[in-house]
Each structure stands twice: as C-alpha cells, then as structure tokens.
C-alpha cells in the first residue's frame, strides 16, 4: 500500500485520474486492477482497460501514449486527507495521479506536478 497526504483548499467534488503504464493484464479480460481509498473509507477496486484487447487500436494508442487512464470521483471537505493505493494485480505500474475540482487546461500528459508542501 502507498499513502499520499494532501490538502484541499475548498470542499467539493473532485476527479482523480490515475495514469498507468499500459502493461498487459495477467488474465485476459481482467484489465489492470488496483484499489483506492481516501481517509478511512473502504478501498474501491479500480479496473482499467478491462475491455481492451492487447492487439486492438485502443491498446496500440495507449502504448504510443505510454499511458492509460482510469478515473474516479470523490467528495472531499476542506482540509487534510490521505489517499491510499492498494495492489490488486501484479504488474500494474502507477505513473501519475491528478486530482482536480474543475476542468483542467488541455495538455498532453496532464498538468505539472504540484510542489510538495504547496497550498
């Protein structure tokens, strides 16, 4: 399990985008699976690319982009939180997490990293 501490300035609905390296699933049809939880909530299993065949056009585009993305939504109150990431399947490589409360500017690989300790 990994833990990330973070702070939100305003309460609201947030979208979390999880950027993964597009590795091949261990079991065809299972996709790439891991679990996430915020604060003391029970973990929710995330399944990314469950319907994507390794030889498909979507798979080829993921490989060219060096990424595949899973999304989740959370309602958060103002203040400090803890995001926990749990392994479900081996071979899943988490590359980047983007948490946003509003639409982000269009970019190739999401916004730049927020500096540690920035608020």
Description:
The protein has one helix and seven strands; from the N terminus they run ββββαβββ. The protein is mainly beta. The model has no long low-confidence stretch (mean pLDDT 87).
- List SSEs in N-to-C order: EEEEHEEE
* Helix content percent band: under 10%
Adjacency order of strands in the biggest sheet:
1-6-3-4
Silhouette: globular
Mean pLDDT, rounded to whole units?
A: 87
Low-pLDDT stretches are none
Number of helices: 1
Report the span from N to C terminus.
25 Å
Number of E strands: 7
Gyration radius over CA? 15 Å
- Percent strand equals over 45%
What is the SS-derived class? mainly beta
Reported for the largest beta sheet, the result is:
4 strands, antiparallel
């Amino acid at each position: 399990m990994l833990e990330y501490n973070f702070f939100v300035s305003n309460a609201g609905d947030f979208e979390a985008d999880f950027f993964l390296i597009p590795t091949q699933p261990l079991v065809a049809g299972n996709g790439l699976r891991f679990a996430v939880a915020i604060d003391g909530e029970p973990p929710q299993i995330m399944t990314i690319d469950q319907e994507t065949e390794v030889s498909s056009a979507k798979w080829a585009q993921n490989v060219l982009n060096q990424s595949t993305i899973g999304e989740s939504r959370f309602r958060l109150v103002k203040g400090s939180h803890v995001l926990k990431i749990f392994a479900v399947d081996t071979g899943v490589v988490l590359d980047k997490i983007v948490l946003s409360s509003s639409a982000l500017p269009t970019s190739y690989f999401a916004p730049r990293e927020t500096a540690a300790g920035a608020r």
